[in-house]
Write a structure and sequence with these properties.
The complex is a heterotrimer of chains A (about 400), B (about 290) and C (about 400). With about 400 residues, chain A is an alpha/beta fold. Chain A contains 13 helices and 16 strands. Chain A has a 6-stranded mixed beta sheet with strand order 10-12-11-14-15-16, sandwiched between helices. The relative contact order of chain A is 0.12. Chain C is globular and about 85 Å long. The termini of chain C are close together. Classes of the chains: A alpha/beta (about 400), B alpha/beta (about 290), C alpha/beta (about 400). Chains in contact: A-B, A-C, B-C. Chains A and B meet through strand 3, helix 3, helix 5 and strand 9 of A and strand 1, strand 2, helix 3 and helix 5 of B. Strand 9 of chain A pairs parallel with strand 2 of chain B, so a sheet runs across the interface.
């Protein structure tokens, strides 16, 4: 079967996500607006009103309720979709754990934005990374096309019987969400065939099969239920790869857990996630022209963390530079913590550096990346493991 | 016997004398086995949350601030699935939510107000025991004035939030108050709510808690009856904006009977009770 | 309170993670119900004949049944029902404190029923019971020391159970007939009726040296008559006396019950049956009180012939006075609510928070309590309009 190409449209990241949800034929869409996610909601309402998508839109009064409605609708057997950002995502924090604990395969689009205070409506990834413990699978898109692709793959991954976990598809606000690109929108029939239908075999609210969902177990069974989720996350690694391969075979695109770029002979590996990767790839090319053997690993899935792939790409390198568009205050960047723990037990692993940059949407260019890579690998004595880039007053 | 049939089996973890056992029986008697419940994290939700459970209906528990929003989600999903022909509708599934006064009026207020404003389909039962009983008798916004709780040991200063009229202000099709002392009235109200089929219907039940209110466990039903007979808890319904109040057939009992039977009002002086009596006397219709 | 089984999942039988259903639900797991009966301190007993008047009367007269018969003007049956439990209607009408009227449910409506009127009528009508006949069976002799109300009452019940009680005067105690000279005639007439049952009353005082003649001896006096060291110690089986340290009877009804209880005890002992189970089965009321009707209910203790009531009019009351007494008694009986008889209203079943009550499939006016789940909250007792539930303290170990 050859690759099926769809129509090409000029879409922003938000609209691409909306098209992705429409192709997946979601059934219940509760949402509350927040910059920069608002257009996802608006576009979906447009689809519903025009009859292009048969769904119910529930204009909830807060993000917390949005997640509750999504959970309840999914438990009743309908495919649910919602979207949020920084403050809204933080507001629905408790329900992310609930959705994961109830093993409901709903999809949440997160348009990354800096968390208050102070307020920034421009992106960084701390908001979704702060939810990394919730038991949701997390994907990070690098552009609008990938955002659409990941939504479709997300439903396949989530609804797989070995997985059954909620999925977050994250894209940076404004950089992806408001940036118009050429996006290939797959054919609806093909997409529907790829995603399939949602039939729940585990939790369902049906008077013919009464069950009580959401119970108190205390220490008797808590660990066992969590262990089940761990098994699910482990299976998710295989399932994500398998689904990505199938998507690539069918539609021509798909990366799996990570995307690696020129890492085979790289001595310096840059680890990124999200929109920064595009600029970082240009930096890698420029560094190679300057004689530095650089390579790039882009994390597509952050949860489950692709430990084996990171080890595979980085073990042969001398240096790993993690570009963190987030910070866990009191420690370091979050991706750095994950990468370090993956590589720490190698008998002779690379030296790992962390650079925290781009917080609150601060612009990072290709030159910036080149400069800091050169600085970090220049064997300057007072280089710190964890450093912050482009801070006025501490350059 | 047919009239004794219920869909809740014996064996629950309620305190002895808890009205929740009676209320579940009555609700399920009317809404029957073909229903889905959204449960709040409160005393009344325990049968759906603890194992082993005596309920034979499907329930969903999404945490404390959830019940009204979960109600919206369930009914939205049922509608869309029926529209798409995916889920054969086996009769009319009654969707209802049941939560305590904390989960309704305090932490769940936003969700409740949102669900009412959207007029989502479902019946919402507020199980009003006038405090946060499940965590150990703390005050809530539905605790009456001068009542003892662990967080208001000298008596609450603020008055009880008038939740039924707040819900009526949302212009939902049906609002009602009910009491266990008059079970036939309660059953009739649930039937009316069920038969309306569409829209957000709200029923507010007074549920005396023997432990929190301080009376012997055998008097639960008696206190519910006294609350109505003394005029403290009027029974009314507001249907599409028109209020209908239950009229008394016998003389109103003095309100001291209601206050003196409960330890949580033990510190009230006779003067304070007389003041309440004076207010209530004005509500009596002239002969 | 001791529990042998834990409520909730038993850790020894806990499920592995592979066995648990996924999704924070317990669907498919074994649904052993939580048996909350172990929470109970008091247990409700569905007791027909448990009207509050009957429960408060120490002699356990089935007042509601008597009233029911009076309503229908079946006067002989009313008398029979009364005399089954109490041989002293006239004395009680005059001397009793009337705890029955204090407990009457009708008091909440328009005043209690006048049980006194009923008692006065039954005495004045002069009905007598024909004694029980046991053809071919020898009546064993029982000695009763003390001719007070306790002694005479125990004699009456022992005679009804088929013995020949011989009543002796106690040591230094006045006999009941002499206790209150105002009611000389009333008491005398009632004692005559007791004698007709086959009781022998000797005016001698009891001396301890005749004990071998009797199957059992009951010392109904509070002093230790018969224990005089000069007369020799009595140490043989079959001596029954009032429990040491038991408080004196506070009223006529308690005295009658004391005698009845001892009669039942002696009878159970002489037939070789264990005391406790026999008495407990005929114990009704929250504080316990023997009903001879219940004791003889299974027929094993009844005589061979039914007791018939022979009518007669006492010399004390003339026709007109008797008419008035009869009319008064019937009027009061009409007001009686006949508590202690279930009407099948279903309030208890509706209001039980555990759902532990259900109607018996055989007898529709009998309620069955599922003690595996009943928590003893008391709502059934409070809500029953007929006072059908009696609460007894839990004792012993639970399952």
């Amino acid at each position: 079967m050859g690759v099926k190409h769809g129509d090409k449209k000029m879409l922003t990241g938000n609209y691409a996500v909306a098209y992705g949800a429409r192709l997946a034929q979601v059934e219940v869409v509760p949402a509350y607006p927040i910059t920069p996610q608002t257009q996802i909601m608006e576009k979906l309402v447009e689809f519903i009103e025009k009859g292009e998508l048969k769904a119910r839109f529930v204009p909830v009064e807060s993000e917390h309720s949005a997640m509750t409605v999504a959970i309840a609708a999914q438990a009743t057997g309908a495919r649910s979709f919602t979207a949020s950002s920084s403050q809204g995502l933080a507001y629905m924090h408790e329900n992310l754990f609930v959705a994961s604990g109830l093993r409901l395969p709903l999809v949440l689009a997160v348009v990354n934005r800096g968390l208050a205070m102070p307020i920034s409506i421009h992106p960084d990834q701390t908001d979704s990374l702060a939810e990394r413990d919730s038991g949701c699978i997390q994907f990070y898109a690098a552009d609008a096309q990938e955002a659409l692709d990941l939504i479709l793959q997300a439903y396949r991954v989530a609804e797989d019987q070995d997985v059954l976990l909620p999925v977050m598809v994250c894209l940076e606000g404004f950089l992806i969400s408001h940036f118009t690109e050429i996006v290939e929108v797959p054919d609806q029939a093909e997409a529907k065939d790829f995603v399939g239908d949602y039939t729940s075999r585990h939790v369902i609210l049906d008077p013919q099969r009464p069950m009580h969902i959401g119970i108190l177990v205390n220490e008797h069974y808590y660990t066992e239920y969590r262990f089940q989720q761990k098994q699910a996350m482990d299976s998710a690694k295989k399932v994500i790869k398998k689904v990505a391969e199938e998507y690539r075979a069918r539609f021509g695109r798909g990366h799996g857990l990570v995307e690696s770029y020129k890492t085979e002979d790289a001595q310096i590996v840059i680890v990124t996630m999200g929109a920064l990767s595009g600029v970082a790839k240009l930096a890698v090319d420029r560094l190679r022209e300057d004689g530095i053997k650089a390579g790039l690993v882009r994390l597509v899935a952050f949860r489950p963390f692709p430990k084996d792939e990171i080890i595979g790409c980085c073990r042969a390198a001398d240096t790993v530079v993690v570009l963190d568009r987030n910070v866990s205050l009191g420690s370091s960047g979050i991706i750095y913590l994950e990468v370090s723990s993956s590589l720490c037990n190698l008998s002779s692993g690379p030296r790992i550096y962390d650079v925290i940059l781009g917080l609150g949407g601060r612009d990072i260019g290709q030159e910036d990346i080149e400069e800091l890579v050169k600085k970090l690998t220049g064997r300057v004595p007072d280089v710190q493991d964890v450093s912050w880039a482009k801070v006025r007053g501490a350059m | 016997m047919e009239k004794d049939k219920t869909f809740i089996r014996p064996g629950n973890f309620f305190c002895p004398g808890c009205p929740a056992g009676i209320i579940w029986k009555l609700i399920l008697k009317v809404l029957g086995p073909n229903c889905i419940a959204s449960i709040g994290s409160t005393c009344v939700g325990m049968p759906a949350i603890l194992y082993p459970s005596p309920l034979d209906i499907p329930t969903l528990h999404v945490g404390m601030p959830g019940p009204a929003a979960a109600l919206s989600g369930i009914s939205a999903a049922l509608e869309i699935l029926a529209e798409k022909g995916k889920r054969p509708a086996r009769g009319n599934i009654n969707v209802f939510a049941i939560a305590g006064d904390g989960g309704t009026a305090d932490i769940g207020m936003a969700a409740l107000s949102g669900a009412a404003e959207r007029n989502d389909n479902g019946i919402y039962f507020c199980f009003d025991n006038e405090a946060y009983m499940n965590t150990g008798i703390q005050r809530s916004s539905l605790t009456p004035r001068k009542s003892w709780t662990t967080t208001t040991p000298v008596g609450k200063f603020q008055t009880k939030k008038d939740l039924p009229t707040i819900m009526a202000a949302h212009r939902i099709p049906y609002v009602a108050t009910a009491s266990l002392g008059f079970p036939n009235d309660f059953i009739a109200k649930i039937k009316k709510a069920r038969d309306l089929k569409k829209g957000f219907r709200y029923i507010h039940i007074l549920a005396p808690c023997p432990i929190g209110w301080g009376f012997p466990s055998e008097k639960t039903v008696e206190v519910s009856r006294l609350a109505v007979e003394t005029g403290v808890w009027p029974l009314y319904e507001i249907e599409s904006g028109v209020m209908r109040q239950a009229q008394r057939k016998t003389a109103r009992k003095p309100v001291s009977q209601y206050f003196r039977i409960q330890k949580r009002f033990a510190h009230l002086t006779d003067d304070e009770i007389d003041a309440v009596e004076a207010v209530l006397r004005k509500t009596e219709t002239p002969e | 309170m001791r529990k042998k089984a834990a409520l909730g999942p038993d850790p020894r039988k806990a499920f592995t993670y592979q066995e648990l259903p996924i999704g924070s639900t317990i669907t498919g797991l074994e649904r052993d119900l939580a048996r909350t009966g172990t929470w109970r301190f008091y247990r409700p007993v569905f007791a027909p004949g448990s009207a509050p008047c009957r429960q408060s009367c120490a002699a356990r007269v089935d007042i509601a049944a008597v009233m029911a018969k009076l309503k229908k003007k079946r006067f002989e049956e009313a008398c029979l029902d009364f005399m089954l439990e109490n041989p002293f209607p006239g004395t009680c009408a005059r001397l009793c404190n009337r705890p029955c009227e204090n407990a009457c449910n009708r008091e909440k409506v328009d005043g209690p029923i006048s049980v006194r009127a009923m008692e006065e009528f039954i005495f004045s009508a002069g009905f007598r019971l024909r004694p029980v006949v046991y053809p071919g069976r020898e009546r064993r002799k029982i000695a009763i020391v003390g001719a007070g109300i306790i002694g005479l009452s125990s004699a009456y019940f022992l005679a009804r159970l088929g013995y020949r009680p011989i009543v002796f005067r106690g040591d230094g105690l006045e006999s009941a007939s002499g206790r209150d000279r105002r009611y000389d005639g009333v008491m005398a007439e009632e004692i005559d009726a007791i004698v007709e049952q086959g009781v022998v009353i000797w005016q001698d005082r009891w001396t301890g040296n005749k004990t071998e003649e009797f199957e059992a001896v009951y010392l109904s006096v509070s002093q230790t008559a018969g224990r005089d060291p000069d007369r020799g110690a009595i140490s043989r089986e079959g001596i029954f006396e009032r429990t040491k340290g038991a408080p004196d009877c506070q009223g006529v009804d308690q005295a009658i019950e004391e005698g009845k209880r001892m009669a039942v005890t002696i009878d159970a002992h002489l037939r070789g049956k264990g005391n406790a189970s026999e008495t407990r089965r005929s114990d009704i009321g929250e504080k316990g009180g023997i009903s001879s009707d219940l004791y003889q209910a299974d027929g094993s203790n009844r005589g061979d012939f039914e007791v018939k009531v022979t009518g007669g009019v006492s010399q004390k009351a003339d026709d007109e006075e008797l008419q008035k007494l009869r009319q008064r008694a019937v009027e009061e009986a009409m007001r009686c609510l006949n508590c202690g008889a279930c009407t099948g209203c279903g309030q208890c079943i509706l209001y039980c928070p555990e759902g532990a009550l259900s109607r018996s499939s055989v007898a529709s006016r009998t309620i069955i309590v599922d003690y595996a789940f009943c928590k003893g909250c008391g709502i059934c007792r409070n809500e029953c309009p007929k006072s059908m539930f009696v609460f007894k303290k839990e004792e012993g170990e639970w399952e």
